[in-house]
Design brief:
Elements (H helix, E strand, L loop, with lengths): L4 E2 L9 H10 L18 H18 L5 E6 L2 H13 L5 E6 L2 H11 L4 E6 L18 E7 L1 E2 L4 E2 L12 E4 L16 E5 L10 E6 H4 L12 H6 L9 H17 L1 H21 L6 E2 L10 E5 L3 H13 L2 E2 L10 E4 L6 H18 L1
Parallel strand pairs: 1-13, 3-4, 3-5, 5-8, 8-9
Antiparallel strand pairs: 2-10, 6-7, 9-10, 11-12, 12-14
Helix pairs in contact: 1-7, 2-7, 3-4, 7-8, 8-10
The structure holds pyridoxal-5'-phosphate.
Amino acid sequence: MKKVYNFNAGPAALPKTVLEKAQQEFLNFQNTGMSVMELSHRSEEYESVHVKASNLLKEILEVPDTYEVLFMQGGASLQFSAIPMNFLHSNNIANYILSGSWSEKALKEAEKIGNCHIASSSKDKGYSSIPSAIQLSKNPAYLHLTSNNTIFGTQWREFPVLPANVPLIADMSSDILSRKIPIEDISLIYAGAQKNLGPSGVTVVIISKQLLEQCHKNTPTMLNYQTYAENNSLYNTPPTFSIYMLSLVLEWVKEQGGLTYIEEKNHQKAQLLYHAIDLSEGFYTGTAKKDSRSFMNVTFTLPTKELTQLFLHQAKEKGFVGLAGHRLVGGCRASIYNAVTLESCKALVEFMDNFQSNNR
Ligand SMILES: Cc1ncc(COP(=O)(O)O)c(C=O)c1O
């Protein structure tokens, strides 16, 4: 089989052992004589997969009992609508921090529902850093932020601390499960699975029970968080195969040593790449401000567009996949989610060094 180094931004690399386990079980899941995809979502066998995924997520992320874990669909993009539909009322104001394209999209959906306020933004800096100086509106419904900006390669190190009555909502699509997070400081976390959690199809939501009580009763059933909480995310047919894959990824994370190990490894991988960029004497330029750099998406440019194209072309020939920057910003981006190995990052650094020597 062709050797590839997968740096895709999402859907992204999955741990090899997880794929192998899924392959082993594919035709005959736990002696049922069926694939997990063929099981009824009301069967005992599927139920155990569902519960395992939820319990492991709670265990690994240390989710307190005051929170619910929900499995939804529609990706993070549907959460952009679900959040204001549940929590933005005629008498309050949704607060958004703009740190990149995904937060802009989240705001755009909220503006269709009610009054919104931009509490902070780094748009004027080309989204090269995490915004500071948050100014909340009066009567805020919540404050929404994007914890890792997949396109611009910036990431919140620490989350803002808010007054007790203001829920913090975080889109953690591209850095959930990559590091320890203070769940108690965040009222709602959501993430599409296709970066660190598994294949696309399931969207994980971690919501405080306190916020859950505030869901607007007129929210359509399938967008109302209470529907999922009250029915163990089994009100309708959930994406069973994606949840099964999620359970395998979570088992893998646990076997690796949990978030302490994962976080340390992610640091090493990111440092390796940022070092290569910083030591390149300007041949490679990191596009994010140093103190805002993401440990998940390393974004950089080369001196000219022609060199960037040549770099991407030669990288592809050597088996490096997914290094082109997002179509909105161009340049290069190495997405180094949990399943991307240190070896892949070392191979990329070696390629970058060689490319620089041959093209300076
Ligand atoms: C931070 C962030 N938010 C939202 C999205 C949109 O996710 P989805 O495609 O699951 O709707 C993405 C996708 O890459 C993302 O990186």
